[in-house]
């Protein structure tokens, strides 16, 4: 550790965000450009180089956090980049998109604000790109074996890069017209500008990975054909089967799934559309669902010029501090967090019907009502207690011209033909069944990421991609030197 007293003398300081009124007028990332590097060395000094670094266990990638903190504090960016990329293919993604369970597991977080691990991570990644420290790493020789990866989200890309670097010939199949999965069309530009994604894709192309876009395996090309043409197949299609809200009035127009709405806004940013056909401009918007996808809808609707936006969360508002009985350190605590989108809603007063940050906690949707044309005009809700029972006398209605359902995902799409054509077995909750080696019931076919694990964090997705790559490499060659950070049955730390 560069400064043994850093955690005592230096307060936590995070990457500052641009003023809300400024950033909602564009789609650029919310942070102040260039404001991270001047503060990051001192923040890295706050790392205590713990004898047992629980941040390692809190992150499924096993990131070597104390090591690269120390290297950053000494301004050794090359070594820091090497240590960071040793466990994570895409730290420029995770440093922007991950909710940082590593910080919840930071030993300093027992009684002080945690080390800004996530900020240090993204600073290393961006500095590595700026200094040319992330060149393509093509294999020295080819193995003669071929692998198809179906899906180009973080799991598919991580698996493809690892297998390509191991010498296999890898082709990634993506149903959309661009590579990236939900990182491309689900994550808004203000959370991660797509230039970060593009440079990783170009790095992978230079290493030898092949990409096949606008190709749905099971429709555009038969799944059995893919299985026949390749020595191994990795299914990494994600959990795209969205959950529904079965209440009266759901059939009204103007009620959309979040993943019908968000991709259109991303296509506007890509230049495909001049204006989203689902734009929230001038509309009263209600978002049903209190998670990250709901917050993405919130920030998007604000930028589109919504008249008002309210977000419903069925859970009670959490406290500001960790509850040591229900969420003891080092587990990831359920506490009140203010995302960039909620900060914008608060500062701009965008949700007059809700609390300061646009959220209505402990609120459950009863029904929708519409006008004579069949378009939604109101959402009727009721407050609920801790057991989700309606509280008498709390029913009310919110004006709603656009309702966005952000209720999460249950598993992979069962209607695209892939699962049926291959005859893949599913577990009762709807995800793809697999064994301890990530193998499905179909020989030569593997499943990884949200399609098999269920909806999870980006760090778990990348860890799954790295682990399934090691399993495939071992099957194709008899052994593997690729790291396998997790097993298919590993889960986040919990009580």
TrEMBL record:
<dbReference type="InterPro" id="IPR006005">
    <property type="entry name" value="Glut_synth_ssu1"/>
</dbReference>
<dbReference type="InterPro" id="IPR009051">
    <property type="entry name" value="Helical_ferredxn"/>
</dbReference>
<feature type="region of interest" description="Disordered">
    <location>
        <begin position="1"/>
        <end position="20"/>
    </location>
</feature>
<keyword id="KW-0560">Oxidoreductase</keyword>
<dbReference type="InterPro" id="IPR028261">
    <property type="entry name" value="DPD_II"/>
</dbReference>
<comment type="pathway">
    <text>Amino-acid biosynthesis.</text>
</comment>
<keyword id="KW-0314">Glutamate biosynthesis</keyword>
<dbReference type="InterPro" id="IPR051394">
    <property type="entry name" value="Glutamate_Synthase"/>
</dbReference>
<dbReference type="InterPro" id="IPR036188">
    <property type="entry name" value="FAD/NAD-bd_sf"/>
</dbReference>
<feature type="domain" description="4Fe-4S ferredoxin-type">
    <location>
        <begin position="36"/>
        <end position="69"/>
    </location>
</feature>
<dbReference type="InterPro" id="IPR023753">
    <property type="entry name" value="FAD/NAD-binding_dom"/>
</dbReference>
<dbReference type="InterPro" id="IPR017896">
    <property type="entry name" value="4Fe4S_Fe-S-bd"/>
</dbReference>
<dbReference type="Pfam" id="PF07992">
    <property type="entry name" value="Pyr_redox_2"/>
</dbReference>
<keyword id="KW-0028">Amino-acid biosynthesis</keyword>
<dbReference type="Pfam" id="PF14691">
    <property type="entry name" value="Fer4_20"/>
</dbReference>
<protein>
    <submittedName>
        <fullName>Glutamate synthase subunit beta</fullName>
    </submittedName>
</protein>
